[in-house]
Write the structure tokens for this entry.
Amino acid sequence: MGVWASYSLSDLVLFSPQAYVRLHELHNAAIWPLQLPALAIAVGLLLLTRGPWTAAWRVLMPLAALWGVVAWWFFIGRYAQINPVAVWFGAGFALQALLLMLAGLRRGTRFGLVGWRDAPASLPGVVLVLYAVLLHPLGQILSGRAWGAAEVFGVAPDPTALATLGFLLTARGRVAWLLAVIPLLWCLLSALTHVGMGLYTGVLTPAVAALAVLWSAVARRSERI
Amino acid sequence: MNRRQFVSLLGMGVGTLIGGAAPAAGQQAMVLKSIPSSGERIPAIGMGSSVTFNVGDDASARTQRAELLRAFFRLGGGMLDSSPMYGSSEAVIGDGLGRLGRPPGLFAATKVWTSAGEDGPAEIEASRGLWGVERFDLIQVHNLLAWEEHLETLFEMKRQGAVRYVGITTSHGRRHAELEAIMRAWPIDFVQATYNIRDREVEQRILPLAAERGIAFIANRPFRRGELIDRVKRHPLPAWAQAIDCTDWAAFLLKFIVSHPAVTCAIPATTRIDHLTENMAAMHGRLPDAQTRQRMIDHVADL
């Protein structure tokens, strides 16, 4: 333990920010045009959760498929080339895919905004989904990344985890909180990786997620459903 | 280290050798250093590969790294240091070496990095396959991980001629007491640890012990992973650096390291050929004496 405590984050991240960005660029090119159906899924799910309530499987099954895509093609097929630990990250994403599927088969969880006045706790979820799908990649492009290297929902882990959290915030039922554990953990791990590379903007991912969860938790107190 | 200790180390015959082939007119001889256990002389500046060669399957980055290697050997480089810990670095190095047709100046150095001693031979064989070399010149136990079991494997390999030298590594001042104990108890050829103008803990015990025991010393993190050189580059190089034939900060920082009599090789890492050229320039011209080394320390401390 004493020895591990002497390591800094940069000692444990053994690839450069350039290699990491290039990884996304190569991944996007290899997986194209999967980004388009992934975007269509995001739009479709947002429409579904507009209300009234929709069954959990309709939201959770497509999300499970996308977590599986990220686990296999991004982590195992791509990221593991430069980071041996990525295999374990991939296993975590595969587990989340399985949990989403199982939760989708279970009765009792409902997704939906219902209406701003009745379910104000769902609004942060929608804001988080929009951030993940639009602002996350747009921010990267505006800060100098090539279009082709932007991290996209359903293909890259960060926006997939953030958007999943967003959709879960529109759900009611205890299982939604359990499903939020792995996405939240990933946001934290992603931030640590970015900081290890010297990319301090990476802390935005868990910060935005935490804000949305907090906002939703507070809003839940005033819900009338 | 004070001046008396420095001169004493020089007297022990582990000092710098300026040599190699006789230089052509207008060319300066290259700084070579002796490996104490064999007397073999190697270029004092090598190259590390942590982070910089970990580019995965990126074809354009691999081509660029192959060109970097080409420049490294053209400029007189020898020791190339890697580890299975560095992701795809060994595969990328092997790819580059293959394109260059296995340059004759290569001094292939890698590490064994696995927590189970019994997994060591398979990992070493996998590394050999990735590099595409017949055998490694040097295999080191990475960060003292399962060092006892791995050293037994490595000494057996050395006995069989499957590796030329055996070593052990650490970085950032970790576990120096344990490192020292191994240096005293085992007949290792190389020890690798962090040494630069700001991180000089090894001057107290490790470097004198290396000289005493006839162990070659590899200095890793000579630029503190870029942080040190980025910081000093904000300031002008002092005019007196010309007296030791330094025209840039990279040579200044590297000459400080390799001018220590017990240091055999420094292994800066870079992805840029212009930076590599600056690094390799440290192998030419005059090296600082003990007095100048102290002046260098004081100057950088004030920046």
Q: What stands out?
A: Chain B has one domain: 42-301. The two ends of chain B are 21 Å apart (CA to CA). The domain at 42-301 of chain B is CATH 3.20.20.100 (TIM Barrel).
